[in-house]
Amino acid sequence: MVQGKVFKYGDNVDTDVIIPARYLNAPSPAELAKHCMEDIDADFVSNVKAGDIMVGGANFGCGSSREHAPISIRAAGISCVIAASFARIFYRNAINIGFPILECPEAAEKINAGDEVTVDFDTGVITDLTTGETFKATAFPAFINGIIENGGLLPYLKAKQAKEN
Question: Does the pLDDT value for residue 11 go beyond 90?
Fold first, then answer.
């Protein structure tokens, strides 16, 4: 379970807005994080705290297939992203790096910037502590939970292989 303050964005937030292309040669996730969301929210990096939550509208993460986008969001301190829907490549890239994201159109519509929210990944329950409303996203299947818990697809596969040997 995670709890944090919400940073909210609209529909069609593309990967070039999440991490502008001019920073793609940054040497580390920490360096990417310094520029996360700067073209859409110049104050994001100075206001985000570890554990905070990002909420987006429809088609979050559209655009190029770069893994830099979910890496920069996670490195900035965001614990998960909730959106009405995700671009499929962003969704897969996020899961591959072990970064939890949840689709829940009702939560994406009703949760406001600055609200305090909890997310229970085991049940898919999202609770807006500010308003008292709860929302239900689809919980991750066991194998995706395993990927997230192991910190990404490759560590998950290595752990799975080690158990089989």
Answer: yes
Please say whether the beta carbons of 15 and 61 come within 8 A: yes
Residue ranges in 40-86 assigned as alpha helix (H): 44-47, 68-76
pTM of structure: 0.95
Number of structural domains (the chain) is: 1
CATH number at residue 116: 3.20.19.10
Range of the domain at 141: 2-164
Q: How far apart are the C-alpha atoms of 115 and 152, rounded to whole Å?
A: 28
Task: Give the pairing type, strands 53-56 and 80-83.
Answer: parallel
Among 82, 95, 60, 94, residue whose Cα is nearest residue 128:
82
State the DSSP code for 19: S
